[in-house]
Amino acid sequence: MTTPLKIALIGAGAMGRQHAGYIARESAATLVASTDPFSSALADETGIEHFTDHREMLDQVRPDAVIIANPNDLHVTTAIDCLERGIPALLEKPVACSREEASQLIAAQHRYDVPILVGHHRRHNPVAERAKAIIDAGRLGRLATVTGMWQTCKPDDYFSMEWRRQPGAGVVLINLVHDLDLLRHFCGEISAVQAMTHNALRGFEVEDSAIVQLEFANGALGSLTGSDGVVSPWGWDQNVNEVPLYAKHLDQSCYFLAGSEGALSVPQLSLWRYGEARGWQHQLVCESHRFTEGSAQQRQLAHFIEVARGQAEPLVSVEDAAWTLAVIDAIQEAARTGQRQIPRSP
Ligand SMILES: NC(=O)c1ccc[n+]([C@@H]2O[C@H](COP(=O)([O-])OP(=O)(O)OC[C@H]3O[C@@H](n4cnc5c(N)ncnc54)[C@H](O)[C@@H]3O)[C@@H](O)[C@H]2O)c1
Fold first, then answer.
1. pLDDT grade, residue 256 (50/70/90)?
2. pLDDT tens, residue by residue, 86-141
3. Is there a contact between 88 and 63 (Cβ–Cβ < 8 Å)?
4. Where along the sequence do coiled-coil regions lie (predicted)?
5. Whose CA is nearest to atom 7 of ligand 1?
6. How far apart are CA 92 and CA 68, in angstroms?
7. How far apart are the first and last CA of the chain?
């Protein structure tokens, strides 16, 4: 039997502790150390070694791989410290805070040739995998329109932390980043965007609502609507059984994709197509597609173990995640200027 992969955690906050839980349920990996300058609680509870400085931890413990779940502004420097030591990393999203930072990490990766998987975990969800397979099999024909929604009501105390009320922490970067990543995964590269945002619901400096129009390189057009202050059952987090925190409305859809031969709702995976005859006077036939439930994060960890062992290429590479960041930059610029924007290569 292969020895379990020795994984160390950098950042033992809310997300880091979740990762520790997934590692505990995975027989092919073992958690050997955690690093967090402000809390040793996880190490105290689990009996693993604790460090306050990740470089010290990397040099002393020499883990086979690390999971980086520290604050966003430390992602790139921490990941580079791992690359320099030849240690593969699962890096939480966002990959970086800006395109410039992302470019630094891409350059370092080319220099050291050590794999990094970026934690856009939704792609590992079995429902996302099945939806992509249906689209890639051409069941929708030529994809023409995509409609996405992420709309919910964050509790007021979510905004008690000041950074969450300030630019950079709005619904676009914090939440729509996941939808944009998944829509890129389903539909291909986004070639241009237009956007409008407002802060009318909460009145904070940061936006609470956004409408984004998307042009895909394959010619499809999309719209994505997001808000963190509305009453709505429509959004991945409410519609997919993934993160326990959110109340679930599993009978509702958050994405609708339509093409020349069919239409698909996600996550229901209802595929609508014509039978014998075509045209709006004819009834559509609905095929219900099934998938086997499974935890996206747990599957992401299993994939990361393969990546760290050199048995698989990262499903979400640094370059790939940097493109989602480039789309976000373009959306913010479009909302600011009112002009259509083309995402710039990271
Ligand atoms: N994939 C997802 O859906 C998802 C969800 C939530 C958060 N995240 C990401 O996970 C990361 C952590 O978010 P969180 O919600 O756990 O935040 P958090 O504030 O709960 O945890 C961050 C932890 O990092 C620690 N930290 C600060 N400086 C550090 C340093 N120099 N070295 C090591 N640790 C340090 C803090 O003490 C804290 O315990 C963020 O990048 C966030 O974007 C991803």
1. very high
2. 999 999 998 998 888 999 999 999 999 999 999 999 999 999 999 999 999 999 99
3. no
4. none
5. 15
6. 6
7. 41
- Secondary structure letter of residue 124 according to DSSP: G
Report the DSSP beta bridge partners of residue 263: 258, 272
CATH architecture of the region 123-294+326-337 = 2-Layer Sandwich (3.30)
Atom from ligand 1 closest to the CA of residue 53 = 32
Ligand 1 touching residue 119 (CB < 6 A)? yes
Q: Is residue 235 in contact with ligand 1, taking CB distance under 6 Å?
A: no
**168 CB under 6 A from ligand 1?**
no
Question: Of 19, 56, 67, 70, which is best to mutate to test ligand 1, by the most ligand atoms within 8 angstroms of its C-beta?
Answer: 70
Taking CA atoms only, the protein residue closest to ligand 1 atom 11 is 69
pLDDT band at 161 (very low <50, low <70, confident <90, very high): confident
Asked if residue 71 has its Cβ within 6 Å of ligand 1, the reply is yes
What confidence tens digit (pLDDT) does each residue in 259-315 have? 999 999 999 999 999 999 999 999 999 999 988 889 999 999 999 999 999 999 999
Dist. CA 94 → ligand 1 center (Å): 11
Does ligand 1 have an atom closer than 6 angstroms to the CB of 92?
Answer: yes
Given 3.90.550.10, 3.30.1370.100, 3.40.50.720, 2.30.40.10, which CATH number is that of 5-114? 3.40.50.720
CB 120 near ligand 1, within 6 Å? no
Q: Is the CB of 81 under 6 A from ligand 1?
A: no
DSSP codes joined into one string, 158-221 = GGGSGGGGSTTSSHIIIIIHHHHHHHHHHH--EEEEEEEEE-TTT--SS-SEEEEEEEETTS-E
CA–CA distance, 43 with 39 (Å, rounded to integer): 9
Cα(124) to centroid of ligand 1, in Å?
Answer: 20
Domains of the chain, residue spans: 5-114, 123-294+326-337
Q: Give yes or no for residue 124 CB within 6 A of ligand 1.
A: no
Q: What is the pLDDT of residues 298-310, one digit of tens each?
A: 999 999 999 999 9
